[in-house]
Each structure stands twice: as C-alpha cells, then as structure tokens.
Amino acid sequence: MALAVIEPVEIPKEEPDIFVPQPEIVTTPCDPWPRPYYLEDGLRKVHPYHYTYNTYCKQRWRGREILDIFATEFRDRPLEYYKDAIECGKVVVNGKKVPSVQHKVVNGDIISHTLHRHEPPVTAQSIGIVHEDNDMIVINKPAGVPVHPAGRYNYNSIVEIMRAERGYDWNPLPCNRLDRLTSGVMFIGKHAKAAAKLTDQIMGRTVKKEYIARVIGEFPAEDVVCDQPVMQISPKLGLNRARASGKDAKTIFKRLAYYPPPVKHTNGVQSAEQPSEDTRTDREKERDAHMSWKSKEGYSIVRCLPLTGRTHQLRVHLQFLGHPISNDPIYCNQRVFGPHLAAGDALSDHDSEIISNLNLMGKSETAEAMAYHDEMIEEYNKRKAEKMTGEGCEVCGTPLYSDPGAHELGIYLHARRYACQDGRWGYETGLPVWAKPPVGKDGPMEATGETDPMALVEGVGTLGLGKEGCDGDGGSEQAKQSGPLMVMPG
Question: Which one, of 404, 355, 444, lies nearest residue 143 by Cα?
Fold first, then answer.
C-alpha cells in the first residue's frame, strides 16, 4: 500500500492583540461609601467632596473652543471660574492640559473637569414604598429630589439615596420620570427585563396617568381640555412655553375643589358681606392693575390627565389657562414671564428676555413664585429662599448658597396614580397634605371613584379630539355623562 506524503502545513502564528488604551483621563478621585449624608433642620445634606466629570465630545461641540462650550452649556459656575479651571488644569482634554481657552475640541475627545463638589440639600423625608415585588418597587417620590444624578445633584438623588439604603451593588432602574420639584408615583425596576417592559408600556402610551395640582384662583367647574403645543425655548435652563409651532401636547383638567380666601373677622364677627377697606397706595393700585392674577382669589385643587408626555407639560398648560401652579418658581413667576404670567400667550416672541430673567433667579434674586398668595409668609419665604450668601468655600472658593426654604423643596404637583390601560394593575397614593381642605373648611380628603376622571381619557375620541392615548373607540357612559368639556384649542 502506497503511503502518501503529507507536507506539513505551516500554521501562521497568531499575533497577540495589541491593546490600544483609551485616551488617558482623570478618574474620579473618590466614590465615598457610605455616602457622606447628614441630616440637619429637616434636610438631607452632603458633605462637599472632590469629583471628576468625564464626558465625550458631543456632536454640537465639535470644532468649538472649550471655554465657549463651558460658558454656553453649563450654568453651575460663572465664566471666570471656567476660564481659570481651564488655565490651571482642572479642565483637561484626553487627560492633558490644553494650551489655551481657545483650544478647539474634536470628535472622540474626552473632556474631564475635576472640582470640589457642593450639592444642594434636599428634603429629609423618606422615600415611601407603595408596592414591592421581585421585579419592581413602586415609590412615592418626595418633592424636590431629582431622579437621576444631574447638574448640581449627585448623591442627593432618588437613585443614589435608594442605593445607599439597599447596598452599593444594587442598581435601581427608574422606568418613568418626574421633575425634581414634583412628588408622587414612580416605578423602579429591580432588573433590566422588568424595567424595559414597564418603560415600553409608559412610552407606548398604554398607561393612564393622573396628577394633582394646586393652582391660583377659581378653576372652571367644567372639565377643560388644553391641546396647546409645547416648545422648549432653552435647553440649558430646561425652560418651555406654550407655542403654536411647538410639539403636540394634550391634557384634560378636572377641578376637584375650590377654596376661597379666608374670611376676615372683626371683633369675632365675619365681615364677608362687606368688602374690606382698600388700603393700597395709588402706586400699588397701578401695579396690581397690570397683574391679572391679583384678581384671582383663593386656590383650586385640579386633577390633571396628560395624554402626551412633553417636558413641563402640565405646568405650561396650567400657565396658559391662566391658573398656574401657585408656588411654581418658574411658570408662576412674574419676574420671568411678566405681569400676566403668559396666560393665553402662544404667539409672542420675547424668549430671550424670559431666558435672561430666569438666569437671574437664584443668584442675586430668590426664585419664589411671585404670584404666591399667602402674604403672611411672603417675607419669611424671601429670607429663607436659597440664594448666594456672598461667602466662599474655604477649600475651593466656590460661592456658597443658603439652605432652601420649605417652599422651594417642591411645587404643588403630585403624580397620584398610574394605571395600566387594560386594568391589569394600578398604583396610587393618597392626596398630599397641600391638596386637602384647609383647617375649618369642608372638602374632599381623597379622590373617590365617583369623581374619577380616568374615564375621560376613554371618551376623548367622542369629543372630536382624536384618539391619541385613549382606550377604545367610543368611551364609556361614565365619560359621556361626566359633564361638558371646555376645549382650549392649540
């Protein structure tokens, strides 16, 4: 038998992978554990600590000077600080100090900024647990606490506070978002699969949402639909307003209660039938004549059903209707929006002035709601509001802020209920304290099923407003019999 000669096959040597390191960056000097929290005067505070922000060059930054990027994209520090930080190497690109503040960044650059971080305090109120199972936690978020680390907030955020309570390796996954100043129902996924499933439902508009708001004046008794488009006019400030050319937005409003101002007493006798003497000066009368909100007495508790999810949608729509949230430091602030608070205004074009006005808030001026009606505590609130103290940090020289007042820790807006469209699940909280009747007044202590406006969502299609975010095709009998709707067109 012949033997075949097999030539040896030369197997090429595999070259070892050559590791190409990422651009050297400044890593976070410390990630303190346990978190440096302490509680004081009803606030959760964080001891200052060193921190490094690392971020890739965004598309809109390409080809721009580094100082220009910091000056236009960030609001936390003045321009002089960023100039000095770049020149002394606190701000570096790809781990290296740049030659000048005119250095232009390019695609792929990593910008690092190391600073002595001062976080604002938040409420010391605990995060309420509405429901918990193996997949998720439903919480009652306190007002004034941001969901994610952002801006001046890091450890004082829902994500980090829950991590501190449950362990360093625990990773909470928020499924819906609430503004920092808003309280109420939030869903926290315990694992990625559960979080993705619930997030898809919320983003797909198969979840009904109900909020509670406290607004200035007597809100209409009939149900109101506002479909005024909403536009963001300043990404840097997160500022929005009603604008005909904005994105589609739609909300149903239903008044739950109206509470007129307290009746004044003279020698123990009510004087409601006789108007009190007008003690205003001529200058004050002239000033008040230009403030339409001054004539709106008392406040209303309103149920809000958003059918779309634009940023600040409820706050903007209530402002447009002439009944802004009564302690909203932005949309109920005449120093920002002018004496009429932009009621019914979707066409005027003075955005730059509004942005400039808002930029002043929290620096030399306090950011209180200027239409706030409780005049007895107005001066107290001004003294207690968070603003720059004129002092600086002994370590880094950062201008220090005073503690926020109680009125700054949140606004009168609460996410009361989230429910699956097909009725499989629903979670809700009770009414917040500020939505319950004041002492000596009668009013609803809870939102009862008989006045539940959730059914209105099902009936919107029958009112010629389309079926966006609605159930079925005709709505329920309850919706059809719930009373007239006042439609505020876009």
Answer: 404
pLDDT tens digit string along 202-212?
Answer: 887 788 999 99
Find out whether 209 and 305 touch, Cβ atoms under 8 Å: yes
- Which residues contact residue 405 at a Cβ distance below 8 angstroms, ignoring those fewer than 6 apart? 380, 381, 383, 384, 385, 386
Residue 408 binned pLDDT confidence (cut-offs 50, 70, 90) = confident
What does the pLDDT read at residue 361? Answer: 62
- Please name which of 431, 456, 488 lies closest in space to residue 208, comparing C-alpha atoms: 456
Q: Which pLDDT value is given to residue 451? A: 47
Q: Which amino acid is at 445?
A: M
Residue 288's H or E segment, with its range, is helix 282-289
Is 135 one of the catalytic residues?
no
Q: Which residue type sits at 103?
A: H
Spot the catalytic one: 31, 133, 179, 200: 179
pTM of the model: 0.75
- Calculate the CA 228 to chain-centre distance: 20
Which SS3 state, helix, strand or coil, does residue 240 take?
A: strand
